[in-house]
Write a structure and sequence with these properties.
Distance between the termini: 43 Å
Structural class: alpha/beta
Helix content: 25-40%
Strand content: 15-25%
Number of strands: 7
Number of helices: 5
Length: 180
């Protein structure tokens, strides 16, 4: 169960792991591009969010090429994408850095999209979720694959109030694009 129910507006944190990346020889990790499957899955993630009416007010994205490209392809599926901030702190970030970045989000943002990397994203979702609908939390604990989307809902007047165990994991999906 969730440790406590907050007060204030309903807020949603959407966590999106970058789509499947390629491993070209001689390319630094930060510069790795998306693999063909990633090029199919990133738009599928964008469509899944649009179909679930889960479009963000702001996106925070790792500066890694694979994360930036995931954002570009996913957000291209929406009519008008929200503003995006590319944050180098999100590259290979662990839970404390991820949470600090989320805590710095302006209060007027009600739905925030965070695009980054594992294992940090999976650990963040598990730490923040006090409970989940259905078996979503167990699914995340088993695996948070590329293109996975987790949605955490909570109430609070400021993002800085989001704490471990205070959110409800309302949705978890792994969108896959079709091979052509």
């Amino acid at each position: 169960m969730i440790a406590r129910a907050g007060t204030g507006p309903l807020r949603r944190l959407i966590v999106l792991r970058h789509a499947k990346s390629a491993w070209p020889e001689g390319v630094a990790d930060h510069r790795r591009p998306l693999a063909p499957r990633g090029l199919r899955d990133a738009p599928a993630a964008g469509r899944a969010l649009a179909e679930a009416d889960l479009l963000p007010d702001l996106a925070l994205c790792s500066t890694a090429v694979r994360a930036r490209r995931t954002w570009e392809l996913a957000s291209a599926e929406w009519g008008t994408p929200p503003p995006v901030r590319y944050d180098p702190q999100l590259y290979a970030a662990e839970v404390p850095e991820l949470l600090a970045t989320v805590h710095a989000t302006p209060a007027e943002v009600e739905t925030l999209l965070l695009i980054g990397h594992n294992p940090g994203l999976e650990e963040l979702v598990v730490e923040l979720a006090g409970d989940s609908l259905d078996d979503a939390l167990e699914q995340v604990r088993v695996k948070f694959p590329t293109s996975a989307v987790a949605v955490l809902a909570w109430r609070g007047t400021a993002w800085s109030a989001l704490a471990p165990g205070t959110a409800l994991l309302t949705w978890f999906t792994v969108p896959r694009g079709k091979k052509r």
